[in-house]
Amino acid sequence: MTAGQRRLTDLDRGEALRLLGSVSLGRIVFTQRAMPAVRPVNHILDSTGIIIRSHSGAAIISEADTARGAVVAYEADNINPNYLLGWSVVVTGIARLVRDPGELARAGTIKGQAGFPG
């Protein structure tokens, strides 16, 4: 594909999740003190959604530590620097802290990227 043939394509959920599952690094975007904040994070996928791990002092933790959670965007991509071609997936949703011991244990056993059911 040449530069003149580049195009934007909307992906269905299954394809977007397949692409997200092929990489482990992305960026979480959230609001911090009424300003946009972007942080690079590692992610894994499971049947409940995108899981990121963060240290207890991270800004996203305090933002998500409310009854309603935090509205976030998550973006990951894979771009070939030689051709400037590739893909980018952006999802939006509510981030919430995982506190349930069973959920924490399950998330801790997931290694690398996991498939996400379509």
Layout: helices, strands, pairs:
Blueprint: H1 13-21, E1 25-32, E2 35-46, E3 49-52, H2 59-64, E4 70-80, E5 85-95, H3 101-109
Antiparallel strand pairs: 1-2, 1-4, 2-3, 4-5
Helix content: 10-25%
By CATH, the superfamily comes out as: Electron Transport, Fmn-binding Protein, Chain A
Mean pLDDT: 81
Q: How far apart are the termini?
A: 28 Å
From the alpha-carbon coordinates, what is the Rg to the nearest angstrom? 16 Å
In percent terms, what proportion of residues is strand? 35-45%
Biggest sheet, open or closed, and with what strands and sense?
5 strands, antiparallel
Specify the structural class. Answer: alpha+beta
Do you know the CATH topology? Pnp Oxidase, Chain A
Task: Give a written overview of the molecule.
The chain has 118 residues and is of the alpha+beta class. It has a single domain, classed as Electron Transport, Fmn-binding Protein, Chain A (Pnp Oxidase, Chain A). Helix content is 20%, strand content 39%. Strands 3-2-1-4-5 form a five-stranded antiparallel β-sheet. The longest helix has 9 residues, at 13-21. The protein is globular. The two termini are 28 Å apart. Residues 111-118 have low confidence and may be disordered.
